[in-house]
Amino acid sequence: MPTCEAGAVSGFTDVGGMTALLHWELEAPVSGSGRFRVALKRKARVWGQAMKSQGDVARHLVQLVALLGVVLTLDGAGLFQAGKPLPKRVVDPASIQHYFTEFNNDEREMLGTAPPLQWGWFVNNIPWLDVPDKNIEEIYYFRWYSFHKHIKKTPDGFIIDEFLDNVPWAGKFNAINMAAETHIREARWLRDSRYAEDDANFWCGPDGEPRRYSLALADSVYQLYRSTGKGQFATKLLPALEGNYEEWERTHQDPNGLFWQIDDRDGMEDSISGDGYRPTINSYLYGDAVAISRIAELAGNTKVAAKYAGKANDLRNSIESRLWNPQDNFYETAPRHADSGWANVRELIGYVPWYFDAPPVAHNIAWKQLFDPGGFAGRFGPTTAERRSPRFEFSFPHECLWNGPSWPYATTQTLVALANLLNGPEQNVERSSDYLRLFDSYAKSQHIRLASGRMVPWIDEDLDPDTGEWIARNILISKHQPPPNRGRYYNHSGFADLVITGLIGLRPNGGNAITVHPLVPSGKWKYFAVDGLPYHGHLLTILYDSDGHRYGRGAGMQVLCDKRIIAHSADLGVLHATLPEHP
Questions:
Q1: Fewest C-beta atoms under 10 Å: which of 55, 70, 175, 316?
Q2: Is residue 184 part of a domain?
Q3: Are residue 66 and residue 188 in the same domain, yes or no?
């Protein structure tokens, strides 16, 4: 099909004494080869006019047939359906308001009280999701309902906290840095960018305490940049990010180049592997070194960029040579001050290196443990330690244990890592169906049974991977330990970011090129859409409609930018597009 330049296509036909004008305005070029960067409007006007001759009828019928050929060609490409006006929104917020009303009512029933629902905030800020799996859809909206509770205005700007009650292990404003990367990854998809940016500023500022717990701070800032495209925001924080990395080197790096950490300071207390050279802290600082190098490139500072690229390369080599256990085919904690040996237990943190795209293809074999009954398989999420370990779920008098229970935080890290694996070099260990399988168990885990017997959405601390019971919550209740309902709406894991970058498949990057790679297996879902998604100063819509009936925009997969189609494919798969320049 030839390229049609922006302009208008119009035709007249006189039939039975009537003249109809069909007028399609092309607001951008249309190209062939099954991929289109186009936005179309359809207008129709009808005038009554007597026909003067049979010749006019024949001539105008020829024009109409030619015009309809163009229309049907465009319609066959999935750009629009003839006879159906394109709606302004793919997903109407009014159609999902009932979720939020129900969440508010559930909160009142569960806790005895609930603040007034701030529906306007959600309308103005969150991307709208429509998927056939209504449990995933409901939990997606529930997690935004929960997340909103943790956005707090302070004299230093907005911060995003973890617990609703003040806890003694938190810092200023009751903020805890450990899950800050997850907070920023979630908040970057809100249309008001202040929430994510203020939170990043806080952790890079004098009161943030970014090393109280392990945190990949520079990577958090870099991931925010990849979603917003605001390079200046990232580069202004470069000195703070360098200073933070240097402090980690001063306090936690040994002469062998590896970083050590106490499992409790990873926020993963009472683990089987314990303290030492853990895959977590070393992967975080590898990711930070890469991020600092790339942010320095944005700033035009080639010296710093090269310095941190070298640090990243050296640390990656140390991770490969010391933390990879070839007997277990897994990344494991290694004891400090020892030249060899490992903790000899596979833990879910062994997947964290993939969170930062660090491992070589040969180590993808580690993913065979994810659904292995002796590995990490769990009905309500993966276990944090392999079941075959003799110390699996060893007895210890504490409510927060990382020796087997499923933690939403660890599942979040694993889902990000798995999405990176599936977007990396070709491999045959995991498939998109495995991503959906893990995600489905994650969504199903986020429920609790009310006193009435009704199951409602809920997020808390750790849970039993086989029964879905919230472990810390039950222990604290049995001890009558204050504060009551400590783990309610626990903000220590992600969900929206996993839907957007994993299931829907938007892979953020700093440039104008867009890649969408849905991790929904072909034939599994007949449709999906995310609408009003902020990205690089634009609003995106990403949708798939197998037969064109759900959204009335034709069959196939589409990416719209500011309501204009910039990419289309007849099939579900990887789709590439280019953002238009800002006016």
A1: 55
A2: yes
A3: no
Residues 456 and 107: beta-carbon distance below 8 Å: no
In which domain, by residue range, is 66 found?
Answer: 7-76
pLDDT by residue, tens only, the chain of 583 residues: 333 333 333 332 333 332 222 332 333 333 333 333 333 333 333 333 333 344 444 444 444 434 444 343 334 434 443 333 345 689 999 999 999 999 999 999 999 999 999 999 999 999 999 999 999 999 999 999 999 999 999 999 999 999 999 999 999 999 999 999 999 999 999 999 999 999 999 999 999 999 999 999 999 999 999 999 999 999 999 999 999 999 999 999 999 999 999 999 999 999 999 999 999 999 999 999 999 999 999 999 999 999 999 999 999 999 999 999 999 999 999 999 888 999 999 999 999 999 999 999 999 999 999 999 999 999 999 999 999 999 999 999 889 999 999 999 999 999 999 999 999 999 999 999 999 999 999 999 999 999 999 999 999 999 999 999 999 999 999 999 999 999 999 999 999 999 999 999 999 999 999 999 999 999 999 999 999 999 999 999 999 999 999 999 999 999 999 999 999 999 999 999 999 987 6
CA distance 481 to 80: 59
The structure tokens listed for 218 are 């520079």
Predicted TM-score (pTM) of this structure: 0.86
3-state SS, one letter per residue, for 221-238: HHHHHHHHCCHHHHHHCH
**For residues 237 and 341, what is the distance between their CA atoms, to the nearest angstrom?**
39
Asked if 469 and 455 count as a contact pair (C-beta separation under 8 A), the reply is no
CB neighbourhood size of 507 (10 A):
17
Task: Count up the domains in the chain and report the number.
Answer: 3
Expressed in angstroms, the distance from the first to the final Cα of the chain is 29
Largest CA distance in the chain: 99
In single-letter form, the type of residue at position 518 comes to P
Q: How far apart are CA 560 and CA 566, in angstroms?
A: 6
Distance between CA atoms of residues 3 and 235, nearest Å: 40
Distance separating alpha carbons of residues 300 and 310, to the nearest angstrom: 17
Cβ pair 48, 18 in contact under 8 A: yes
**At 562, is the secondary structure helix, strand, or coil?**
coil
Measured between alpha carbons, how far is residue 388 from residues 92, 209, 330 in Å? 48, 38, 14
Whole-angstrom CA distances from 82 to 327, 551, 553 are 61, 13, 9
Which H or E run includes 70? helix 54-76
The answer on 108 and 29 residing in a single domain is no
DSSP letters, 379-412, are TTS--SB-TTSTTTT---S-S--BSS-B-HHHHH
